[in-house]
Amino acid sequence: MSSIDHIPDVEFLxxxxxxxxxxxxxxxxxQLFEDFEPDELEGLAxxxxxxxxxxxxxxxxxxxxxxxxxxxxxxxVEIVKKDVxxxxxxxxxxxxxxxxxxxxxxxxxxxxxxxxxxxxxxxAVLDRESLSRIIAEEPRIGVKLMMELLMLLNQRLRSVSxxxxxxxxxxxxxxx
Length: 176
Known about the structure:
Layout: E1 11-15, H1 20-28, H2 38-45, E2 49-53, E3 58-60, E4 68-74, E5 77-82, E6 88-94, E7 99-100, H3 102-107, E8 114-117, E9 121-127, H4 128-137, H5 139-175
Antiparallel strand pairs: 1-2, 2-9, 3-8, 4-7, 4-9, 5-6, 5-8
Helix pairs in contact: 1-2, 4-5
């Protein structure tokens, strides 16, 4: 049982197989899974579970232990991070096709930010236990998924590094 099962108001909809058509539609349109064949997407969906959460539900809570990532199927979430004063700052939003929680899925570290439903959302969840099973039972899909996650996280790191350099340059310009 992953930690998502303990979030109040989150309704378990069952395994992802009934949602495989919707998952395939979304996954085919996002870069993370662009190298997956239809049968591989179905194989991946067999290891996922689907949930529905109402408006205002904190699906991911900053600082909590994380053992799952989610794929937004319907609806949107706001991504919120506390600043040094402990005040919530909106970092952005995400809609259908976006994945969230990949870092904690892989490293098991506490969640970096919170994700709050801006409307009713439907999500497909892959937890660490299921990821381990994919790697053991479907190594081709497991390796492909891990490579895609590695590339996604690498892209995000490059983007953040570029933003950091821009901030540092702007700060240098103000000091001069």
